[in-house]
Amino acid sequence: MRSQRAHPRRDSARDVSNEIETSLAAVRVHRISGSELAVQPDVLAVEEPLEIRLGCDVDGQRAHRAVSITMRTPGHDLELAVGFLFTEGILTEPEQVETVRSCGGGNVARVDLRSGIGADLARLERHSYVSSSCGVCGKASLEAVRVSARARLREGRPVVEAAVVHRLPETLRSAQAVFARTGGLHAAALFDTGGNLLCLREDVGRHNALDKLIGAQFLAGRTPLLDGVLLVSGRVSFELVQKAAVAGVPILAAVGAPSSLAVDLAREHRLTVVGFVRADRLNVYTEAERIRFPLSIDSETRTPLSVV
Question: Are 268 and 289 in contact (CB under 8 A)?
Answer without folding.
Answer: no
